[in-house]
Fold each of these.
Amino acid sequence: MKKIVALLLLAAMLTMSLCSCTVDMEDMGSIIPMVLADPQTDLDPTEMIYDKDFVKVSSLLYEGLTQVKDGKIEPAIAEAWEEKYNESRDEYFLYIDIFYSRWNDGRTLSADHFAYAWKRILSPETDSPAAALLYDIKNAREVKAGNMTIDDLGVAAVDSNTLEVQFEKPIDVELFLEAISSPALIPLRDDAVQGKEDVWSTNTNDISTNGKFSIKSMDPAGEYRLDFSKYYRLEKDPEDGYNVFVKPYQLVTDFAKYKTSEEAVAAFDNGEIYYVGTFTTETYAAKEKEIKSSDTLSSYTYFFNCENDVLSDAKVRKALSSALNREEIAKIIGMGSKAAAGFVSDVATGATMKASFRKEAGDLYKTAGDVEGAKALLKEAGVTSGDFAITYREDRAYEQKVAEYAKGVWETLGFKVDLKGVSGESYESALYGGKFDVIALDYQALSTNAYSALAPFAPSYSGSVVEVTVDSVGTAKHVTGFESEAYTNLLNEVLDLTTRKDRAKKLVEVEKLLGDECPAAALVFYAHNYLASSELKGLETSPYGHTIFTEAKLKDYAEKNAAYQAAQDAE
C-alpha cells in the first residue's frame, strides 16, 4: 500500500491562525477596481474550452481537489490521498480526503458534490470534453457511451469528507491527480443545478461556488463584482474572522465605464483602477514594457469541418495548415503570442511534471509556413480549387485580420475564400452545431497534460452528447466531424499504459497523427498578460492562464476603499 499525505503542516498552521488571530471586523480587506477579463455570461465549467478568458473568472469562483504549481501536484480542496489495492478482488482505489470547506451560501462542501459533478460530465446527456480526463475511472467510458448506468461508475462518497475512486487498472496516480486539477472538474451541487440547467450558471442568485470568491454581479454592460467568500474553509463562526484565507475584499469591474481596452488602460494610467487583464493588439504594444506575461495552455486555433466536400481530404486540410506562416499570425495578434510549433502548448507536461511535452515531441509545424509543400499535398489529393468560408468573432479586430491573411494565402493555392464575422449566439451556434467550414476559436487545454488537448478529437473521447437508443453506436463525433479509427486506437493505447513516461511517448504519436489528419490547426499560443499597479502586491499566476488574487493587497487600501465607496455613493 502506498500512502500520500498532503497539506498536514499547512492544515496545522491554518488551525493555529484561526485559534490565535484577532481580526478587526471593520477591516474587510482591499477593494480592487480593475478590468479582470472580457465579461462572461455563463459560468458553467463545461463551457470553458473555447474561451481563454473563462478561466480568468471561473478560477476565482471554484476550487478543485488539486492544483499544479511549479511543476508539482499540490492539494487544493484535497487534504490527503491514499492508494489502496484489494488483492483478493484485484481492485485499485484512490481515497481522497477533503479539507473542510463551505459553499458561498454557508452550506458544507461534501465529497458527494465532486461525485455529482463528475457523474454529470460523464452522463451521455452532457456535452463536455472533460469527460476524457476521467476515463481512467472504472466503467467511465462505458457510462459515457450509455452502455452502463451512472451508478456503475467507480466514484462514490464514502462519507461527507472522503471520495473513493476506483480505477480500471493500476495507474500512475500522479496522472490522475494532474487531470483533476482541471478547472472543468470542480464540484457542483445537485440541488443548485438539477431543474435549473438553463439558468443556474447565468444568474448570480443561482450560482453556488466553493472558491475563494463569490460572484455578486455579472452584468457585461455594467458591474462585474466578486467578493471574497466569507465561508471559504471556515469551520468556525464567520464572526471569528472570515478574511483569514483571502486578503482582498472585492474585485470589481465597471464595464459601463471601461467598455474598451483603451479605456481600461487609460483608467489604469490615471490611477482609477489597479489591474488590467484584457488587451487589444494596440494596447498591448503600447504597454508591453510594463505588462507581465506568462505562457498558457490556450491557443488560437482553426477547426476544419471534415464533412465539408472541399475539406474532407486530410491532405487538403494539412495543406491549408502548412501554407500559413504562424510567425506572421503571431505578429498580427501580438499580445505576447507565439507561433505554434505544434498543437499542444509549450506549458503541457511530458515524461515528468517538469518536462515539456513540446520539447519532447519536437516541431509539428513549420512556423514560417511551407507554401510549396502545401501545393505538393494538394496535387497528391487532386484538389486545386474549391469554395469555403472562415467564420470568426467579429468583436475581436485581430480575428478579422488573421482571417484576411489566411484568405490571401489560401487563395494563392486556388481556393475561393469568404469571410464571415459573427458574434454572440450566432458564433456559438456555428461552433457547437458544426455549422462552419473553417472556424477560429480559443482552444483551452483542460489539463496540463498533453492528453487533454488531444483526446477530444476522437469520437469516443469527445465528451459530446451521446444518443442512447437501441441502434446508437455509443459515441459522438467532435464538432469538426473528424473520425479516424487509427486515432481512436492510439488513444486507447495511451490509456492501456500505466506510467507517465510511457503515456507521454505514445502521446507524441497521437499529436503527429492529429497533425497529419489535421481536423484542427493551432496557429499561435496565447500568453496570459496583465498590468498591475506598483501598489498592488501578492499576485501569482497559474499555468492555466489566470491570476491568483488570494494574497493580493493594495497599499493604503483603507483610504482607497473609502474614496472608492464615496465615489460610488456620489453616482
Amino acid sequence: MKSDMTLTRRFVLYVAGIISVLLIGSLIVTSAVVRSAFTDQFGQRLSRSRQALARYSEVHVLQAVQKLKTVLTSPRFLAAVATKHTETIQREMPIYEGILGVEFLVIRDRDRKLVYTTENIDKECKRQVNALPGTNTESVIVEYFNINQDLVEIVCSDIYTNDGFFLGQLLFGASVSGALTTELKELTGFDVFISKDGKVLGKTKSRLTNIITANKDFFDSENIILHEITEAVIEGEEILFLSLPSSYTNATITFVGSVDEHISPIMSQVTLWLIGLTVFGGVISLLSIYTLTKHRIERQVDILVTASERIAVGDMEFEVIPQSTDELGLLAQRFEQMRLRLISNREDLEIAHQEKVNSERLATTGSFVAGIIHDLKNPLAIIRSSTELLQLIFKENQNALKHCFNINNQIDRMVSLTRDILEYCRGKTQLEMQQIRLAEYFDELIIFHKQNFKKAGIAIVCSGDRSVFVNLDRQRFRRVIDNILSNAKEALKAGDKVEIKWTKLTDKLRIEISDNGPGIPEEIVDSLFDPFVTSGKVGGTGLGLAITKKIVEDHGSELYVESGPGKGTTFTIDMPVQLVDQAASGKLVISQGELL
C-alpha cells in the first residue's frame, strides 16, 4: 500500500522548508541559542536511556529464562543429575555451562550436598552460592553481589523431573559489569557507570570515564539524584548525567555524556555553513534530492516494501536483488540475507521438531523392547531347553535334529533382533567380532532365504572372491543382510532378481546387494535410513533400515543406496581394509563403531 505523500515529495518539501527557515533565521540565530537547542536535544536523547535500560532488563531476563528452561528440560541434564554419575556429570555439565553462558556452575542434590562445581569458581563466589537457601519450590532466585569490586549475578533454580520429583538445585553465575556497561553503551551511545554504595563496580572505557573516575567525589550520595538529568562541570568540561536504579541488580546505572564533546563540532559547522549553504546549496540540494529519491531511492524502497509484504504473508520464494552499491544496496543485501536466514531457520525448526519426535518415539520403543526382552526371556529359555532335550531323545533322527537346530537358530535371531532394537534406541552397541569366510557366510544366508524367495518367484544369487575373509559380528551383520533382502522381497514381483556381489578394492571391500525391481520413490530416498520411515511398506516399525545403517557404521563401514523409479535398487556397503584379511585372534570387540 503506497502512501499519498511519496518519498520524493517528502524530501523536497522537507528541504524546501529547511532552506526557507535558514534564509530567514540565519541572521538572527546566535551560537548561544543553537547551543541551548542542541543541549536540550542532548538531554532528551539522554533521557531515552530509561527506555533502553528497561528494554535491556526485559531482554536479559527473557534470555536467562529461555536458557534456564532449555537446560532444566533437557533429558540428558536431568538424567545426569538424577543418577549422580560422576563421569557423566563431568562430561555433560560443561555443555550446559556453554548454553547458559556462565563463568561458574554448581549443582546441589536435594540434601544440599554438592554434586558438581566448576573448578574456576572464586572463593567469595562459592561462599555466596553456599549461603543461598534451598526453596523446594519451582521459583528462581536471582541475587547480585559486590565481589572483588565487580557485580556478580548468581541464579539459583530448583531442578524437577518431568513428573515433578525434586532432584536438587542448579546454581550458576557470572560477572555482569563488563557486559552490562558495553551493551548499554551500544544501545544509548553514552558512557555508563555501575555503582553501589558509592563504589564503582563497572564502567565503559573512554576519555570521559577516566576524567570522572579521577574525581573521587563524583559518586557521593549528594551528587547522585535518581531519575533526574543532572549537569556538572569537571575540569572545565560540561557533563550531563542520568542516574537510574536498576531493579534487577540493586545497583545504580549512570549514563554520562560530554556536552562539549557532542555539540562543539556541530556548532563549528553550523557557524561556518549556516548562511553560505542555505543560499547556494538550497537550489542544488532540491534538484539533487529530487533526482536521487525519484530515480534511485524511491525505486529501491518500493522493492524492499514489496519484499517485506511478501515475507509478512509467508511467501519467501523470491530474491531481493540490490539495485546499487550504496547504503540502500547494502540494505537490500542484508534483506536478502535475512530472507535466506528465515528460510534456513524454518527448515532447522522443522528438522529439530522431527528429531524431537523421533527421539521421543525411540525412547518409547526402547522401553517397549526392554519389556519384550524381559517377557520373552523365560519362554525362549524353555523352548531352547525343550529343543536341547529333544536333540538328546532323537539324537539318531537327523530330520528331528535339523528341525531342533533351526528352532534354536530362530530363537537366537529373535534375541538378536530385540537386542539390536534396544541397543539402537539406547545408542550403545558392543560388537563381537569374528573372522569368517565371506563366501560361506553368504551361502548360509542364501540357503535361509532361498525357500521364501523361491515361493515368491524371485531369483537370488551371489558372486565374489571365495578366498576373502572379513572380521565382523556374525549375528548383527546378518541382521543387515536380512533387512535388505526382506525389503527387496517385499518390493519385487515374480520374475525379478536379487544379486549379492562383493569385490575387493585397493583400500576397501565393497559389498553390493542389487535388484531389478521398481526402485524406491524419489520422495523417500533421502530419508530412507531415518527412523520410523515406512513409506511404501505394508508393515513394520520403520526401524529396520535405521538399525541396519547403525550396525554398518558400528563396524566402521559405510552404507548408501542408489535407486530411482524403474531403475532398480542397489545397497552398497564399503568396509575398511583393516577389517579384511586379518588373522583370527579370538574375538575382537567394537564399541560404538570404534575398533578396540
Amino acid sequence: MNIAERIAELRSLMRQNDVLFYIIFGTDPHASEYMADCWKENAYLTGFQGEACTTVVTPTEVRLWTDSRYYLQADKELAGTEIILMRESEIDTPSPEQWIASAIEEPESRIALDAKLISVNQFEQFNQKLAAYGGIVEDMDLLTPIWNEENRPQLPDGKVFVFDEKYAGESTQSKLKRIREDIASTGANAMMISALDEIAWTLNLRGSDIDFNPVFVSYLLLRQNDAVLFIDAEKLTDEVKDYLHTNRIEVAPYAQAYNLNRYLDEESVVLFDGARLNQGLLNSLQHSYIQGLQNRQSPILVMKSQKNETELAGVKKAMHKDGVALTKFFRWLEQHIGKERLTEVDLMRKLHSFRAEQENFIEESFETIAGYNANGAIVHYEAREDDCAEVCPEGILLLDSGGQYLDGTTDITRTIALSEPSAQAKRDYTLVMKGHIALASARFPKGTRGNQLDVLARQFLWQNGLHYGHGTGHGVGHFLGCHEGPQNIRTDNNPSPLRLGNICSDEPGLYRAGEYGIRIENLVTVVSAEKNDFGEFYKWETLTLCYYDTTLLDLTLLTEQERQWINDYHKRVYAELSPLLDKETADWLKQKCKEI
C-alpha cells in the first residue's frame, strides 16, 4: 500500500470504532529518541523519516507536527500527500492537543491512541486538556491491523554483552545500592524502569537493538533485594545469564512486563518516572495487587549524567581517536575533492572507515550529517545513495558526526570552506564562532541551569538579527545515547541544574535555506572552577579535539581574547593529536592549527 492507501485503511478502522481523532506519537514503548524499525509508525503512515513528530488523523485531515530541525526535510518528504505540516517551533502553532480541542464539534468525541506509545505524563496532559472540551481519550491500537506481522519488522534480537567495569568505573552492585537507597528515601520499595539507556547503565550491559545506541529492548523491575529483567531470552548469552544470576537479577519474558502480579505483592510501593514510562504499562501496574505508586523523576537520570573519573578518562581517549579519524578525513578530502567524483554518501563512508580504524570503535553515535551547500541548511539532513549531492571544490560543507567507542561517545560538528568563502559566509561563521567561544568560556555558580547560559551562544547572532531554532546543547551519554538528560542548554526552561561531570554539546549554528548551513560543535564537561565567599563556581572543560577552519573567519569581528582562545585551542589540538599521526598528516595539521 502507498501512503494514501494506508491513510484510507486507518480511516476505515476509525469509522468502524467511532473514532474521530487518531494520534500517532513518534516514539516507542520506552520513550526512546531513536527506535527499532518495528515502532516507526509515523514513518510507515506518512513517509516522514524524522525522529521527532506527532501525527493526528481525522476523517478529513492529516496533520503532522515536528520542530524546526526537520522543516525542510518534512516539506520534501510530505510533498504530494494530503498531510499538512505543523511547524511546532513557531510560537503561533497550536500543539496537537490544542488543535484537537479546537476541532472537537461533538460532545464525547472519541480520541484514540496506543497507550504503549505515549508517556504517562503526556497522556495525563492530553487527557486533562481534551476532557475539558468533551474529548474522551481511549487506548486503542488501530495501526497494527494495517501494519501487521506480515509486513512489519520484528522486535530486534541482538545479543546483549557485559560492559566491563574497567570502562564503566562502577560495579552493578554499587549502582543498585545507590538507586535502592534513593528509592527507599521516598517510601517506595520497588521501581519500574522502561528507559533503555537507564537499564543498560544500571546493569553495566550493552546491546545492539537500536541503531547508533548500544542498548537492548527490555524492562527492569527493581525490588528491595533483587530485580527482574524482562527480555527475550534468546538475546542472552551464557556469560550474560551467569552475570545476571550473580547480581540477583531474574529473567522473565519481555511481554510479561505487562502482567506484574507474579513479581509484586500487596506491600509493594512502586516508583516510576512518568516522563518515560508508557501509559499502557502504568495501566498494567494499576491493575496489579500493590499498595501504591509514585510518579517522580528517575534517580538514575541524574546518576547516569554525572560521569565518574573512569568514564571521563574514557571519553578523553575516545576524543583522541575521533580527532585522529577526523584529521585524516579532512586531509583526505582536501587531497581528493575535484579530482574524482564525490558525493555526500561517499564522504560519510570514508569518515566511517577512518573511525573504524580506531581501537574500541563500535559504530557511529548517529547517522553522519554531510550537508553540502544548501543541504547543510537542513538541520537533520540525511543523505541517501539515491538522493544526495555531489560535493564539488566550491562552497561550504557541514559535517556533523560522532562515534560510539567502548571508551565513550563522541559528537562533533565542523563547517569547512571548499573554496574562497563569501563575505556573508565568513561573517555568519564568525558570529557563530563567537557564540561557541562565549559559551565554552563561561563560569557560573553551582545551581545554574542550561537555559540561563543559552543566550551566551546566541547573543552575537541576535544582535545582528539572526537566529537558529535548535537547542544549543544536549547531554551526552557514556557509550550510550548521544542525546541524554536531564541537563541541556536551550531557551526552554529546564529546572535541572548543570552538575559536575555532566557532558554537554556546545553547538550554535546558522542556516540560510537554499544556500548553506553553519554549525560548530564541541563536547564540554562541567568541572569545578573555584570556591569563594560567593559560593562554588563551575566552568567548562572542552573535550573535543579537532581544528576549526580559520579560512571562514572574519578576523575583524574577533576580539583579542577570542583570537587567543582559538590559538590556545589549536595549540592543544596539535600537541595532543600530532604524536598519534604520521609525519605528513601531522605537518598538515600544524598548518591548520597555525596562529591567527
